[in-house]
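Field reference: "sequence" (input) and "structure" (output). Example, IS801, transposase:
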Amino acid sequence: MGCNGTENGGRGSLKRRGLRVGIFGALHTYGRRLNWHPHVHLSVTAGGLDEQGVWKNLSFHKEALRRRWMWLVRDYLLGQPLSQLTMPPPLAHILCESDWRRLILTAGGQHWHIHLSKKTENGRKTVNYLGRYLKNRRSRAVVWRITPPEPR
């Protein structure tokens, strides 16, 4: 799953504009009350560098971004061969591709929550906030690395 177009929710907008954005992600497996609550935090720069290294501002439209994010995650998961996945015990009953597809297309319903925070003036607050989770032993068990494709 790469960063191939979330700006304004348009397909390939970043790629079409030749922009490279910064993205930092953290997979959280628990909530504030230390309850099991897997969710993803992503911090995205409010702009990107063009091919000449010039900064270009970006804007994000929440509803378009929410729909696009939901589809990109589902599309990525549907592209994974079931035979190469290790299911946790609660999902051990999923043995065929049609069951896998049904799970992915119904998980979370049609409304996935996204929250767009206010833009920070510098990255220090963001680094401090996300850094707390990376220092925590519960979070270190998960390593999630996604390298976006090079702009063409």
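The longest strand covers residues 36-49.
The radius of gyration is 17 Å.
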